[in-house]
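Because showing beats explaining, we think one record worth quoting, sequence and backbone structure tokens together, and here it is:
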Amino acid sequence: MQKKISKIPFNGTKEQEDKLKAVIDENKHDKSRLMAVMQEAQEIYGYLPQEVQLMIAEGMDVPLEKVFGVATFYAQFSLAPKGTYHISVCMGTACYVKGSQKLLDALTEKLGIGIDECTPDGRYSLTACRCIGACGLGPVLTVNDEVYGRLTADDIDGILAKYQD
């Protein structure tokens, strides 16, 4: 599954940039620390937008293509921001055969976003994940750390209603 690049404009702060520069300065002597720097950058920003990848590439003196390659190869990295409420639909075999694709379709329609995207207001983000280990409850989705199981597409409105402020 290819990662999507965020359509939401980058909105980093000077404080975040200063933190990242400090991390880079501590590690720039050792190119093998690239992944660790990227992990810390994601902690600082919540994701790895192109602007952050460029700062890392320049600061670590590695090609931008290498940073992008690592960011897109490893599942731990995100190129799009996560919403306040991060929704993840399990697409493991047990959930899939029990209808998780219908859940995902309903969410993309209701939220107006695709997989690996965030709503423009930053409220919701959506991902499809592999097995989360709740096969007996399939199909399953999570909202942040809360697990919802034995769902149908008709359950989506009620779940989303819980996260309206």
